[in-house]
Amino acid sequence: MTPQRVTLITLGVADLAAAKAFYARLGWREHGAQEGVAFYQMNGLVLGLFGREDLAADQGRPGAALGTGAITLAQNFATEAEVDAAFEAALAAGGVALKRPEKVFWGGYSGYWADLDGHVWEVAMNPFWPLAEDGSLTLPE
Q1: Would you call 92 helix, strand, or coil by DSSP?
Q2: What number of H helices and E strands is found in the chain?
Q3: Interval 52-87: pLDDT, tens
Q4: Euclidean distance between the first and final Cα of the chain, in Å?
Q5: Could you tell me the pTM of the whole model?
Q6: Which of 85, 69, 66, 67 lies closest to 77 in space, CA to CA?
Q7: Sign of CA dihedral 37, 40, 46, 52
Q8: Which of 26, 58, 104, 128 shows the smallest number of beta carbons within 10 Å?
Q9: DSSP for residue 14
């Protein structure tokens, strides 16, 4: 049986140096130094940045055109004010506003922005999903 978990998310980027600088402007700290890739420790998993061409080659399909935007990465927050602050921080770092945070049909508060490579991030507050003190999320029973 395959475990139900994700331990690493890797985003293909056009310019690794520019992507690293963008995430640094968000206040993210790179974990360890490795040539050609950047890793960021998160709550229970790691986010990686990898050049698109190198990522395609690593996947065993050199020359493949890797796309973006068909997946959403999300950060949940405890309050609407925290959502607004995270959204504004992303824009100040060079992110692109897709949808300003607003109250949404399911009872929460949510907005979307894209990073330099078009990877879509949602910032949200879901009143039905309380966060742990460290910001991690465990779905209620």
Answers
A1: helix
A2: 3, 7
A3: 999 999 999 998 988 887 899 999 999 999 999 999
A4: 23
A5: 0.90
A6: 85
A7: negative
A8: 128
A9: S
